[in-house]
Amino acid sequence: MVGQSPPCESSSAVLLEPFVHQVGGHMSMMKYDEHTICKPLVSQELSFYESLPLAMRQFTPQYKGIVSVHLKKDSLGNVTLIASPSLDNATGDPTVTLWHKCKWAAGTGTGGERAFGTWSHTQVTKTFKDGCPGKRLLRTDLQYCTDSLLEDANGNQPERKSYNPWGLHCHRQHLNRMSSKHNENKLHQFLLLENVVSKYNYPCILDLKMGTRQHGDDASEEKKARHIKKCEQSTSASLGVRICGMQVYQADTGHFLCKDKYYGRKLSPEGFRQTLRQFLCNGNHLRMDLLEPIILRLKALLSVIRKQSSYRFYSSSLLIIYDGQEPKENTAPLDNHLHFQKTNCTASHGAHHSRVDVRMIDFAHTTFKGSKCNHTTYDGPDHGYIFGLENLIKILQNISEGK
Asked: Is residue 68 over pLDDT 80?
């Protein structure tokens, strides 16, 4: 995935910003334009997109092509990623050039893996103000705190006062890795994919790690054991699904409520159900109008997955997305005493279904018969994934029925 002889910078260079609506995962997702994101290319994921079954295309981001990126550094600590056009670029623009520049400090925090350091305030403030729907609702004081995504002992929500920092955390880690491992002449290929949340004003996103197994066929014994333990200690084993990240717009405060993968790993099956309900609550009432369209879309996906023989979607995620800005018909009058506390939202039934979306993402460990990176050939559908989908549908149906 690397080569030599980087191209010269193009006059049509585009600022490549951190994707501020990344709520899960560990690989940096970056925003190219309003409708396109990019991520480091993994050959197994590319193989999946290149041979994607027609029936699955409505449930995955559109694949838009490949660009080559090389690193550029300066003496002030600025890291620049410059991309050149590729013959495989499916956007049809021969001058596609991605450019990213973000100054970051090398400081470490107290959060271990989650240490964030302090970013250049001016640079990232501009990123947030220019690149994020609901931008007036997001703060840009960018010190990542270890417990910033968790409730305190009294059940209060400190994250109500902040943005979702996960994407920026992933982005800084990625720049660290590239800067330390590669020189400026190395070329790195990036996938261009559809930005599936671009059509939403206030994108509420739930990232679900699907299936009872998370390690790929190429995992080392140490990595395999680590992933098996994570599954056993989380709802992956009991439900076939666990929460990897979440942001949901809170109409009562004007902020996004955020949860990260560490929160999701600790949830019991009942805690998973409560958090799923919380994802459908806007701080004032439960969005009952969302349940039927989400369930219908999940059932349609389930039907498709059942027919995909040999596919194993190890470590992939499922996004459930809706707009936090309600249709006027769905807006319920608020009582003065009504406010958001955990998941105790009252139900609000709208006259019209809100637009929702369900998308599968992250196919770096997906395998199927005929894959260029195939390690093992499996028969039949992915029963672990199906198990997770069936439980997810059941839980949402119970919420719909008031159980």
From this structure: no
